[in-house]
Amino acid sequence: MKNQLVTDILYQIADLLDLKGEIFFKTRAYRIAAQTIEVLDEDIEVVTKENRLREIPGVGDALAKKIKEIAETGRLEYLDRLKKEIPEELLKMLNISGLGPKKVSSLYQNLGIKTIEVLRQACLDGKLRDLEGFGEITEKNILRGIQLMEKTSGRVLLNVAYENGERYINYLKRCNKIEKVSIAGSLRRWKETIGDLDILASSDNPEEVMNYFVKYSDVQRVLLKGITKTSVLLNDDLQVDLRVVKNNSFGAALQYFTGSKEHNVKMRSIAIKKGFKLNEYGLFDKEKDKYIVGRTEKEIYSKLGLAYIDPELRENRNELETAAKNKLPKLVGYNEIWGDLHVHSSWSDGYESVETMAHQAKKMGYEYIGITDHSQSLKVARGLSEERVIKKVNEIDKINKKFSNFRVLCGTECDIKPDGELDYSDKILKKFGFVYAGIHTSFKMTPEDITNRTIKAMENEHVDFLAHPTCRILGRREPFELDMDRLFDAARETNTYLEINSFPDRLDVNDIHTKLAKEKGVKFVIGTDAHNLNHLSFMQFGVATARRGWLEKKDILNTYSLKEIEKHLGM
Ligand code: DGT
Ligand code: CA
Ligand code: CA
Question: What is the CATH number of the domain that holds 200?
């Protein structure tokens, strides 16, 4: 189903045309069509095949042709052309939170601003406030947006690095000069954002490996080429470093280049204390400089008297001390998840029907899926009125009759109002199998108020889970400054599970808070917040965050079977 792709491309075109300053109704046509297709009940590929695109309201000949091209090829030449016409720096300005295409276009046309640096200075000098549609507050917001963007700039989200890494590794595996190959660096540790991608290979023919490496089709530019290290820039500006070592150094190099640097530094000092020398070539005897081990990571940790440490833990957060005592947790496995409890459907702002999402979940090996559409006051997300809730409950009852060994649970992602009250009455909340509570509006409150608001919602007896607790969006919205001690205490006392939201720009709660919460006896649920089929696969990023937060299977509700969670949730 390419509905979302079509929608995204049409919105992008509208933004780009706005930026170019096209006449109003031309861009409006793209937005109207995008909005229609966003909530279309049918598969756009089917509509295309059956030649019925013109029947969609707002789609004329020209648009139908474009949609057909997207549906058939997955891309649109017109979009690529538009992107080339507009200066790259202007496109980058679109990523600043609070700046839409209209504003960027106005800044360009009225003040000649075309780079972020010039924009920053103009804000600092108060030059924007006299422009129509701008004010002192806009200037402040833009400055904050630039700051936020810079914090993550040059870094990519975990899923982007992951997909690039997978593809590159698959390509490298086809090189017969390579013996072993692995992802290293922050991606192997599943950090939430990735600076550059590190890959390690072992081979006796490093030169040929490097030649093969730089021939990868997605390489934009070779930055540096040597026989031990080569760096390239991919088309989307992600840097990839490849190191090639001999087989008997593979484990040592993997350990070294997986990092983190802080973990490595401490590990090397442990080695020195025990009379060794440790580097990327192996573990050596300090006196005689004799190679001891280095083929695998395990043997290095073991020779140092340490239990093996999973890459996700290697952040120097007490893992080495704990490994020395052989007290590391048995981390939850990537395959230990039985179901996804945070999933949207076309009842609200999801792209697929309940049934389609359920089939996919079953195909993924799950035993259950929880459909959590938005609540009534979230109009932009087509939140469900109380009346539609009843209809949805009935639909799900019917769908369940079609499945065996699988169950669709009817939940909700109920909005928490500014005063901490929930967006549904208790009478309606009771109709759901389970309730996620989450904040989606009125983000600007004092830390104390936002903490009180959240805790008040958790105290509602119908609330089971707290959705994306800090509400951060990586690169776009700072997390709430919640009083975490109070939040964790409330979670434990009210028996509310904290969500680890797996959406790559959320990963909320994060790894550090997860670890602290666990130490306070808090329990978790990992949800994807999926709005389409692909999003269901984000689960692994949530599990990675759980692992980085030292969680075990027993700490996470959806590692339990359907029977067990029904008991937990009192269904
Ligand atoms: P990133 O790329 O910023 O997301 O983070 P990393 O951890 O991938 O860092 P990167 O790419 O600079 O280096 C890869 C690994 O190489 C790093 O995790 C540990 C190791 N490494 C890099 N620099 C040093 C260093 O100065 N000392 C030690 N011991 N290890 C280092
Ligand atoms: Ca890296
Ligand atoms: Ca690197």
Answer: 3.30.460.10
Q: Please give the model's pTM, rounded to 2 decimal places.
A: 0.82
Give nearest CA residue, ligand 1 atom 30. 261
Half-sphere exposure of 538 (CA within 13 A, CB side): 30
- 437 with 468, same domain: the answer is yes
List per-residue pLDDT tens for the chain, 571 residues long: 677 788 889 988 998 988 887 777 788 889 889 888 877 778 899 999 999 999 998 899 999 999 999 999 989 999 999 999 888 888 888 888 778 888 999 999 899 998 999 999 999 999 999 999 899 989 988 998 888 787 766 789 999 999 999 999 999 999 999 999 999 999 999 999 999 999 999 999 999 999 999 999 999 999 999 999 999 999 888 999 999 999 999 999 999 999 999 999 999 999 999 999 999 999 999 999 999 999 999 999 999 999 999 999 999 999 999 999 999 999 999 999 999 999 999 998 898 999 999 999 999 999 999 999 999 988 777 889 999 999 999 999 999 999 999 999 999 999 999 999 999 999 999 999 999 999 999 999 999 999 999 999 999 999 999 999 999 999 889 999 999 999 999 999 999 999 999 999 999 999 999 999 999 999 999 999 999 999 999 999 999 999 999 999 999 999 999 999 999 988 7
Whether residues 478 and 386 fall in one domain: yes
Name the residue with the closest Cα to ligand 1, atom 22: 261
Ligand 1: residue whose CA is nearest its atom 19: 259
Domain membership of residue 214 (yes or no) is yes
d(CA 280, CA 285): 14
For residues 419 and 512, state if they share a domain: yes
Q: Which structure tokens are listed for 534?
A: 């692909």
Distance 185 CA to ligand 2 centre (A): 5
| Ligand 1 contacts CB of residue 261 (under 6 A) | yes
Does any ligand 1 atom lie closer than 6 A to the CB of residue 185?
yes
Shared domain check, 135 and 24: yes
160 CA distance to ligand 3 middle (Å): 16
Residue numbers of the domain that contains 56: 3-152
Where does residue 363 rank: exposed (0-12), middle (13-18), buried (19+ CB within 10 A)? exposed
Are 430 and 285 found together in one domain? no
Counted domains in the chain: 4
Q: Which ligand has the shortest distance to the CA of 158?
A: 1
252 part of a folded domain = no
User: What does DSSP say about strands 156-157 and 407-415: parallel, antiparallel, or unpaired?
Assistant: unpaired
Are residues 404 and 514 both part of a single domain?
yes
d(CA 257, CA 249): 12
Which residue CA neighbors atom 27 of ligand 1 most closely? 261
Contact 384, 36 (CB under 8 A): no
Distance CA(445)–CA(465), nearest Å, equals 22
CATH code of the domain containing 387: 3.20.20.140
